[in-house]
Specification:
about 30% strand; about 15% helix; ten-stranded mixed beta sheet
Length: about 250
Protein backbone atom coordinates (compact mmCIF):
# COMPACT_ATOMS: atom_id res chain seq x y z
CA UNK A 1 0.00 0.00 0.00
CA UNK A 2 1.36 3.37 -1.00
CA UNK A 3 2.11 6.26 1.35
CA UNK A 4 -0.75 8.17 -0.25
CA UNK A 5 -3.21 5.36 0.53
CA UNK A 6 -1.91 5.10 4.08
CA UNK A 7 -2.45 8.82 4.52
CA UNK A 8 -5.98 8.59 3.15
CA UNK A 9 -6.81 5.72 5.48
CA UNK A 10 -5.46 7.62 8.45
CA UNK A 11 -7.60 10.62 7.54
CA UNK A 12 -10.70 8.44 7.27
CA UNK A 13 -10.32 6.19 10.29
CA UNK A 14 -8.73 8.68 12.70
CA UNK A 15 -8.84 12.28 11.55
CA UNK A 16 -12.38 12.24 10.17
CA UNK A 17 -13.82 10.49 13.18
CA UNK A 18 -11.94 12.57 15.75
CA UNK A 19 -12.38 15.98 14.13
CA UNK A 20 -15.80 15.42 12.75
CA UNK A 21 -17.42 13.63 15.47
CA UNK A 22 -16.28 15.46 18.59
CA UNK A 23 -18.38 12.94 20.46
CA UNK A 24 -21.17 12.86 17.89
CA UNK A 25 -19.67 10.47 15.35
CA UNK A 26 -18.56 7.29 17.09
CA UNK A 27 -17.47 4.09 15.40
CA UNK A 28 -18.00 0.71 16.99
CA UNK A 29 -14.95 -1.45 17.56
CA UNK A 30 -11.32 -1.29 16.58
CA UNK A 31 -9.67 0.70 13.81
CA UNK A 32 -9.35 -0.92 10.41
CA UNK A 33 -6.61 -3.39 9.55
CA UNK A 34 -4.60 -2.51 6.45
CA UNK A 35 -4.22 -5.33 3.94
CA UNK A 36 -0.50 -6.23 3.87
CA UNK A 37 -0.54 -7.41 0.26
CA UNK A 38 -1.44 -4.02 -1.20
CA UNK A 39 -2.91 -5.75 -4.26
CA UNK A 40 -6.53 -4.78 -3.63
CA UNK A 41 -6.62 -1.01 -4.06
CA UNK A 42 -9.59 1.29 -3.71
CA UNK A 43 -11.78 0.96 -6.80
CA UNK A 44 -12.34 3.97 -9.05
CA UNK A 45 -15.75 5.45 -8.35
CA UNK A 46 -18.07 4.58 -11.23
CA UNK A 47 -21.63 5.67 -10.52
CA UNK A 48 -24.74 4.22 -12.13
CA UNK A 49 -28.05 6.14 -12.09
CA UNK A 50 -30.31 5.12 -9.18
CA UNK A 51 -33.80 3.81 -9.82
CA UNK A 52 -35.56 6.80 -8.23
CA UNK A 53 -35.38 10.62 -8.30
CA UNK A 54 -32.02 12.00 -7.21
CA UNK A 55 -30.74 14.98 -5.25
CA UNK A 56 -27.01 15.76 -5.14
CA UNK A 57 -25.90 18.18 -2.42
CA UNK A 58 -29.51 19.11 -1.80
CA UNK A 59 -30.37 19.95 -5.42
CA UNK A 60 -32.67 17.72 -7.48
CA UNK A 61 -31.00 16.55 -10.68
CA UNK A 62 -31.62 13.93 -13.36
CA UNK A 63 -30.55 10.46 -12.15
CA UNK A 64 -28.08 10.28 -15.05
CA UNK A 65 -26.27 13.31 -13.63
CA UNK A 66 -24.62 11.10 -11.05
CA UNK A 67 -22.26 9.94 -13.79
CA UNK A 68 -20.76 13.43 -13.87
CA UNK A 69 -19.04 12.41 -10.63
CA UNK A 70 -17.34 9.32 -12.04
CA UNK A 71 -13.87 9.15 -10.61
CA UNK A 72 -14.93 10.91 -7.39
CA UNK A 73 -16.44 9.34 -4.25
CA UNK A 74 -20.06 10.08 -3.36
CA UNK A 75 -21.90 9.58 -0.06
CA UNK A 76 -25.47 8.26 -0.29
CA UNK A 77 -27.76 8.56 2.75
CA UNK A 78 -30.94 6.51 3.04
CA UNK A 79 -33.79 8.44 4.67
CA UNK A 80 -37.61 8.43 4.55
CA UNK A 81 -37.57 9.86 1.03
CA UNK A 82 -35.46 6.93 -0.20
CA UNK A 83 -37.70 4.48 1.66
CA UNK A 84 -40.74 5.90 -0.15
CA UNK A 85 -38.81 5.99 -3.46
CA UNK A 86 -39.45 9.73 -3.62
CA UNK A 87 -35.86 11.05 -3.51
CA UNK A 88 -32.36 9.68 -2.98
CA UNK A 89 -30.00 12.02 -1.13
CA UNK A 90 -26.39 11.92 -2.37
CA UNK A 91 -23.55 14.20 -1.28
CA UNK A 92 -20.20 14.98 -2.85
CA UNK A 93 -18.72 16.02 0.50
CA UNK A 94 -18.42 13.69 3.48
CA UNK A 95 -18.98 16.58 5.88
CA UNK A 96 -22.34 17.49 4.38
CA UNK A 97 -23.38 13.83 4.37
CA UNK A 98 -22.60 13.37 8.08
CA UNK A 99 -24.33 16.62 9.03
CA UNK A 100 -27.42 15.44 7.15
CA UNK A 101 -27.26 12.07 8.93
CA UNK A 102 -27.07 13.78 12.33
CA UNK A 103 -30.02 15.99 11.49
CA UNK A 104 -32.35 13.21 10.39
CA UNK A 105 -31.25 10.82 13.16
CA UNK A 106 -33.27 12.85 15.66
CA UNK A 107 -36.19 13.59 13.31
CA UNK A 108 -38.75 10.74 13.09
CA UNK A 109 -40.44 12.40 10.10
CA UNK A 110 -37.22 12.44 8.05
CA UNK A 111 -35.41 9.26 9.02
CA UNK A 112 -36.06 5.79 7.67
CA UNK A 113 -39.02 4.22 9.49
CA UNK A 114 -38.67 0.83 11.15
CA UNK A 115 -42.42 0.55 11.75
CA UNK A 116 -43.46 -0.62 8.29
CA UNK A 117 -40.61 -2.94 7.36
CA UNK A 118 -41.28 -6.28 5.75
CA UNK A 119 -39.85 -9.61 6.72
CA UNK A 120 -38.08 -11.92 4.32
CA UNK A 121 -41.47 -13.36 3.38
CA UNK A 122 -42.82 -9.85 2.72
CA UNK A 123 -45.19 -10.10 5.70
CA UNK A 124 -45.51 -7.04 7.90
CA UNK A 125 -43.03 -7.48 10.75
CA UNK A 126 -42.35 -4.41 12.93
CA UNK A 127 -38.77 -4.23 14.19
CA UNK A 128 -37.84 -2.43 17.43
CA UNK A 129 -35.90 0.80 17.19
CA UNK A 130 -32.19 0.55 17.90
CA UNK A 131 -32.65 1.88 21.45
CA UNK A 132 -34.13 -1.52 22.38
CA UNK A 133 -31.03 -3.40 21.24
CA UNK A 134 -28.38 -3.89 23.94
CA UNK A 135 -25.00 -2.26 23.18
CA UNK A 136 -22.96 -4.61 21.04
CA UNK A 137 -25.90 -7.00 20.70
CA UNK A 138 -26.85 -6.37 17.08
CA UNK A 139 -25.85 -7.61 13.66
CA UNK A 140 -25.64 -6.71 9.98
CA UNK A 141 -26.60 -9.45 7.52
CA UNK A 142 -25.47 -9.21 3.89
CA UNK A 143 -27.10 -11.26 1.11
CA UNK A 144 -25.89 -11.89 -2.41
CA UNK A 145 -29.39 -11.71 -3.86
CA UNK A 146 -32.26 -9.27 -3.49
CA UNK A 147 -34.92 -9.83 -0.83
CA UNK A 148 -32.46 -11.61 1.45
CA UNK A 149 -31.86 -14.46 -0.97
CA UNK A 150 -28.84 -16.60 -1.75
CA UNK A 151 -25.63 -16.76 0.25
CA UNK A 152 -25.51 -14.70 3.45
CA UNK A 153 -22.85 -13.25 5.70
CA UNK A 154 -23.49 -12.13 9.30
CA UNK A 155 -21.38 -9.34 10.82
CA UNK A 156 -21.84 -9.09 14.59
CA UNK A 157 -21.92 -5.65 16.19
CA UNK A 158 -19.78 -7.01 19.02
CA UNK A 159 -16.97 -7.78 16.54
CA UNK A 160 -16.83 -4.14 15.45
CA UNK A 161 -16.00 -2.62 12.08
CA UNK A 162 -14.90 -4.68 9.09
CA UNK A 163 -12.25 -3.23 6.79
CA UNK A 164 -12.15 -5.94 4.12
CA UNK A 165 -15.11 -8.04 3.00
CA UNK A 166 -12.70 -10.37 1.17
CA UNK A 167 -11.99 -11.76 4.65
CA UNK A 168 -15.66 -12.19 5.60
CA UNK A 169 -16.63 -15.78 4.84
CA UNK A 170 -20.04 -17.38 4.37
CA UNK A 171 -18.69 -20.52 6.03
CA UNK A 172 -15.36 -21.86 7.12
CA UNK A 173 -12.56 -19.39 7.77
CA UNK A 174 -10.34 -16.95 5.91
CA UNK A 175 -6.90 -18.40 5.19
CA UNK A 176 -4.00 -16.14 4.30
CA UNK A 177 -1.00 -17.07 2.20
CA UNK A 178 -0.92 -19.16 0.08
CA UNK A 179 -4.72 -19.46 -0.18
CA UNK A 180 -5.70 -15.82 0.43
CA UNK A 181 -9.37 -16.69 0.55
CA UNK A 182 -12.21 -18.42 2.36
CA UNK A 183 -12.18 -22.15 2.91
CA UNK A 184 -14.59 -23.70 2.20
CA UNK A 185 -17.04 -20.77 1.83
CA UNK A 186 -17.06 -17.64 -0.33
CA UNK A 187 -16.26 -14.08 0.68
CA UNK A 188 -18.64 -11.12 0.82
CA UNK A 189 -16.61 -8.70 -1.29
CA UNK A 190 -18.63 -7.00 -4.07
CA UNK A 191 -21.56 -9.37 -3.52
CA UNK A 192 -24.16 -7.67 -1.29
CA UNK A 193 -27.52 -7.14 -3.02
CA UNK A 194 -29.69 -6.77 0.08
CA UNK A 195 -29.04 -5.99 3.75
CA UNK A 196 -30.71 -6.62 7.10
CA UNK A 197 -29.44 -4.24 9.84
CA UNK A 198 -30.20 -4.33 13.55
CA UNK A 199 -27.59 -2.61 15.74
CA UNK A 200 -27.66 -0.45 18.85
CA UNK A 201 -26.06 2.62 17.23
CA UNK A 202 -27.63 4.94 14.64
CA UNK A 203 -26.05 4.10 11.27
CA UNK A 204 -24.20 1.47 9.26
CA UNK A 205 -21.76 2.64 6.56
CA UNK A 206 -20.98 0.43 3.58
CA UNK A 207 -17.98 1.52 1.47
CA UNK A 208 -17.07 0.33 -2.02
CA UNK A 209 -13.35 0.25 -1.20
CA UNK A 210 -11.53 -1.58 1.56
CA UNK A 211 -10.91 0.31 4.82
CA UNK A 212 -13.78 2.72 4.07
CA UNK A 213 -12.23 3.88 0.82
CA UNK A 214 -14.25 5.15 -2.10
CA UNK A 215 -17.97 5.93 -1.99
CA UNK A 216 -20.30 5.28 0.95
CA UNK A 217 -23.86 4.06 1.41
CA UNK A 218 -25.14 5.16 4.84
CA UNK A 219 -27.93 2.95 6.20
CA UNK A 220 -30.05 3.49 9.31
CA UNK A 221 -29.18 1.15 12.16
CA UNK A 222 -32.46 -0.77 11.98
CA UNK A 223 -33.90 -1.71 8.64
CA UNK A 224 -34.34 -4.28 5.90
CA UNK A 225 -33.06 -3.11 2.51
CA UNK A 226 -34.46 -5.53 0.00
CA UNK A 227 -32.80 -4.29 -3.17
CA UNK A 228 -29.61 -2.24 -3.29
CA UNK A 229 -30.11 -1.80 -7.05
CA UNK A 230 -32.53 1.00 -6.18
CA UNK A 231 -29.62 3.07 -4.88
CA UNK A 232 -27.06 1.89 -7.46
CA UNK A 233 -25.28 -0.13 -4.78
CA UNK A 234 -25.72 -3.72 -5.93
CA UNK A 235 -22.50 -5.80 -5.70
CA UNK A 236 -20.37 -2.86 -4.55
CA UNK A 237 -19.70 -3.08 -0.80
CA UNK A 238 -16.16 -3.96 0.35
CA UNK A 239 -16.00 -2.68 3.95
CA UNK A 240 -18.25 -1.50 6.78
CA UNK A 241 -18.35 0.82 9.79
CA UNK A 242 -21.00 1.24 12.52
CA UNK A 243 -21.70 4.77 13.79
CA UNK A 244 -23.51 6.60 16.55
CA UNK A 245 -24.56 10.13 15.52
CA UNK A 246 -26.61 10.97 18.60
CA UNK A 247 -25.16 12.32 21.89
Amino acid sequence: MSARQLGRLAALSIGMIAAYAAGNLQGRGQSFVISPSGRRRTKPSIHKPPLMPLAIDGKEVAPESIQDFNGHPLYTVLDRGAQDKMMLQVFSDIGQAMEYCKRIASDPAARWSSDDLHSRRLVSSPIPMSSHIPPGGGYVDLYDDVYQGGTSWRLLEWDGNEGDFAKVCSSGIYIGWPVNGCFPGINADNRASSVDCRISLTHVVLADGINLGGSWLVLPAVGIFNDLNLYSWNDRASSMMMLNLLP
